[in-house]
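Hey L., structure's done. Input below.
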Amino acid sequence: MKNHLKRLAAPKNWVLDRRVTKYIIKPNAGAHCLEKGLALGFILRDILHVAERMDEIKKILATTEILVDGVVRREHRFMVGLFDVLSIPALQKHYRVVLDSKGRITIVEIPAAESTVKVSKVVGKSIVVGGKVQLHLHDGRNVLSDVKVSVGDSVVVSVPKLVVKEVLSAKKGMSVFLHQGKHAGDVGVLEELKDGLAVYTSANKTHGAAHAKVKGKVITSGSYIFVVGAQGKPVCTVVPK
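Output:
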């Protein structure tokens, strides 16, 4: 596997100047796919402008607490992916990785109160030794919990301890975020989920009108929706303001 990545070959949803240099930092293989995450060093240098050179970023990572989901990270190639929380205690700044209305990866600043919680989608379940239920989350983490939850639902977990605080079921009236497909980055209210298809009302009137298929509502694959809240209100920041 190659450790380098040309800027021209980088995923289309990465927001970057593709001609300023030939190469860009390639994230290490991690819990997120390449299209859903960025290297920690790239975020600190090119997006947050914490420093101008990568050697400075490496020194900062080695000597300063840089937290991803509450855990100190030292590797500049560490992948920070969708809905991960990036914290810089020295600056008292907190950020979340989200998608903009065009499906591009972006970083948004969030209040300190939000930095301790994260919404994660349940992508699988299994029974482990002792008969306990283990939830497999979209970010590669596994959580032991006795809460009643189905695959496709979301859970609000605390970070870094990963304690399930709330279950967000995939049902009518829930706030959803589109994390994949041509509607990626859109948010709305779920109207129906049946036979592998989801129907939702887009919160973006322009987007909803452009892609409406049935009575002003948008139809997409059920696997593309990510439940992020109830009664049309996300529990945390999921889109840029």
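The mean pLDDT is 90. The two ends are 38 Å apart (CA to CA).

-- N.
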